[in-house]
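As a warm-up, study this chain.
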Amino acid sequence: MDGRRVEHLLTTPTTPKELISAESEGGTSFPNFLFFVLHKERAHSERWNGPAPPKNPWRYRARTGMLFLMLIREATDADWPTIWAFFHPIVVAGETFTYPTDMDQDQARQGWLLSKPDRTVVALDEHGTVVGTAKMNRNHMGNADHIASASYMVDPAHNGRGVGRALCEYSLGWARQAGYTAMQFNAVVATNTRAIGLYESLGFAVVGTLERGFRHPAHGHVGLRIMYRTLDEDPTR
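Now compare it with the structure written out below.
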């Protein structure tokens, strides 16, 4: 495969079908990509660090009964308009994030699209549609710089498809690979029970609560949960 083709696949918006078709051109490795095979019971992930992905993932889908194929890759500037389309109404709603509800697009872009050593990714469905995004970064400095953090946003139109779980599993794997030994979420809104349940299923525990720390537009003052887990075990279990 031509090196320019590999660079294109790794740095531009790419659908799973485009990535898989590269195999017919000679094959290569895709260490920055993570494919998620989503089952009704739970999500399972596979990382391809060697040859290209399976020749026929659609046949693999039929054999395993998965719901859909998802690709997680590094976010690019070209992804931002799609991210902003669901990012903005989520922030304006003021129910799940501590961002200012009047946050403008430039502020949001600067705060969400991170550069190395931090990372921002997008999740694409089998049609190449961006269905969610995550940012991953160091949580603390100095002698606590071994603790990572992450934030996730899923397009509400794709809730319930396992996108949040896939992004969370990816971020845990990234943190381990980057040398972090723990991950902490600083402000999970207490009424966001779906997120809390997901994090707990992936090994996080509530280690503290800021009582009345968040002004919810419908429920008034509610708590902010601090959630934490170490990374000494497989992050996908």
